[in-house]
Write a structure and sequence with these properties.
mainly alpha, two-stranded antiparallel ribbon, 9 helices, 2 strands
């Protein structure tokens, strides 16, 4: 049985994620980190919008496409370097995702839409871009926040939480507050919101 273009694109994205040399232990086995991350992105998308378009589903799945190939350390370890790194990654990941879409049989228009979503164009004005941002923030809070919290002082954590919260929609806020998290994580989020 032949695969649909959507199934083909998801398979190609997942095959790329499966090449991530960084692994984590999940469900009793070592799994490439970006494969776990992309599946969490898709799971949170279903919570935010179970009827999401194919282009949004593909952009969500391709959010960190081959990110490990451009380590954070390849840019200056300061705020400017961080922003340059993130800008380059968004552009690169968008190009890679668009090519996978084209290779899977999507039109140039659909591939361009996936790329625009991956680049997070028109955040706050485009409902799908906002959903993608909500999902990325929810995955950060669920998957990365507790480790991040161990590495930084409270003032920096509160600042990051305020910035994260500011990028999210009301629906994203509601989902974040309903998430299962440690008492410490919840305390920090509430403190960040209280001081906002």
């Amino acid at each position: 049985m032949s695969q649909s273009k959507f199934e083909t694109a998801i398979r190609l994205i997942d095959e790329a994620h499966a090449q991530d040399p960084n692994t984590i232990r999940s469900e009793g086995k070592e799994i490439p980190y970006e494969l776990v991350y992309s599946n969490k992105m898709s799971d949170y998308l279903d919570k935010c919008n179970a009827n999401a378009s194919e282009t949004l589903r593909l952009a969500i799945r391709a959010q960190h496409l081959r990110r490990w190939e451009v380590p954070r350390s390849s840019y200056a370890m300061n705020k400017t370097g961080y922003h340059l790194w993130r800008t380059y990654l968004k552009k690169r990941q968008a190009e890679l995702a668009a090519q996978i879409c084209l290779d899977s049989g999507y039109s140039s228009e659909d591939a361009g839409r996936v790329a625009a979503l991956v680049r997070k164009e028109n955040l706050k004005q485009d409902a799908e871009t906002q959903t993608l941002e909500d999902v990325a923030c929810l995955v950060f809070l669920d998957d990365q926040f507790e480790e991040f919290e161990k590495e930084h002082d409270e003032a920096k954590i509160l600042n990051i939480l305020r910035k994260t919260w500011g990028k999210m929609s009301d629906k994203g806020h509601d989902l974040a507050l309903k998430m299962s998290m440690s008492d410490r994580a919840r305390e920090l989020i509430l403190k960040a919101l209280d001081e906002k």
